[in-house]
Amino acid sequence: MFLLGERVQKTKKLAVVNPYNNQVFESVGLSDESDISNAIGIAESGFDILKNMPAGKRAQILRHTAFIMQEKREDFAKTIALESGKTINEARAETDRAINTMNLSALAAMKLTGETVRFDLGGPSDKMGFYIRVPLGIVLAITPFNFPLNLSCHKIGPAIAAGNSIIHKPASKTPVSAILLAEALLEAGLPKEGISVLVGPGSTIGMSLVKHAAIRKISFTGSLDVGKIITENCGMKRVTMELGSNSAVVVFKDAPFNYVAKKIRKGGYTLAGQVCISIQRVYLEEDIADEFLRELSLEVGKINYGDPLLEDTEMGPMIDESAIKKAEEFCEDALKHKGILILGGRREKSIFLPTIIFNVSEDSLIIQEEAFAPIVAVNKFKSVDDAIAKVNNTKYGLQAGVFTRDITKALKCAQGINAGGVLINEFPTYRVDNMPYGGTKGSGVGREGPDFAIKEMTEEKLIIFDQLP
Predict the structure, then answer these.
(1) How high is the pLDDT of residue 455?
(2) Residue 335, φ and ψ in degrees, nearest 5
(3) What domains, with CATH codes, occur in the chain?
(4) Catalytic site positions
(5) Against a cut of 0.90, is the pTM above it?
(6) What is the pLDDT of residues 115-125, one digit of tens each?
(7) Count of Cβ atoms closer than 10 Å to residue 172 Cβ
(8) Greatest CA separation found in the chain?
């Protein structure tokens, strides 16, 4: 854990384990209830400092943080790889994105403005007014294991840009990245009261923070089930929730098979499928289903899996044993629901092999739920309306991809698919850090991306002037 600019050593420690070989590579202090009260008091002091800090100064701190992260890029990347099981190249890519996210947050701090308000719309008025955006207070950032650095930056960067203080509760699997980020922020000039990192289970430490009256905003990335628990317990707080998905790709017969197959290879198996917008469902136009399935099988069969620290490894391990068991259960259920196993479907030690299942029932787990595993279900569709209906027939709606050269079909899908993002001729796993990112239905509430998140971390304050008689 991390309080007042220092790593806090505790009697109880959390062992951080490398998912690939199950070896402990670091231990961090485990927070308790007394640390929560301490962190709240520190954050209240931090908010008093940050809300009065000039926006230009906050932007400078964020830019300097990005510079420090760039200097320590390999340290951050290796830590991410060891904590999360990402390949070293995936971890480097995440670090680069996190650097960009902090720079984008600095820009957001400089652009944050209000607007004038008219008072003469209903008749003559001598009043004039405007609103400004003011910070909320203490922001609680709760982050997952799969992007331990960049998703933290997506919450912490805009919070600081707006003038809030932060308490960060990272996933217990990946706390070291969070502490490294906090240290970089302080090295860049953030006051030591500006950020605290508490380490411990979400059911205890996390829930106590969620319920605490001093917290004004919760930004959470995780599962739908946990998101529901948070919203049921947080009271009258602002919330942003990114709650996962089972992203679908629609492939029409006019799409280039080899190109799309390569996209699915990347979008379905990056980080062993443990990505909120990982491709989990592929819908193929009936006429090309068999031919495309052969092409996809050849591509996925080329994936080089193994030790994530080796430069040529394309896919690493699952995060833990429970994740592997869940993947096994999804495969077993798919086979019970008439699915045909094309590739994979089993584990090799800590790795679940890249898996393709064909022609599975639409009521199976792999279609309806989030697998968070390197499993792709491939089914057929008959028409544009049929494809849209199948994509929408789930409680999730984060992002979806459509591949076609037909602009009419593309527009119909873009309008008909119920998701936070519909990507034409791109896979749904695509994300740049300045775009509005978030979902519909069970995939969440609110949007990330610094320009959008900063608005959700502020509130409008109206100021009106009138003339005295």
Answers:
(1) 96
(2) -65, -35
(3) 2-244+443-464 (3.40.605.10), 248-434 (3.40.309.10)
(4) 242, 276
(5) yes
(6) 999 999 999 99
(7) 18
(8) 82
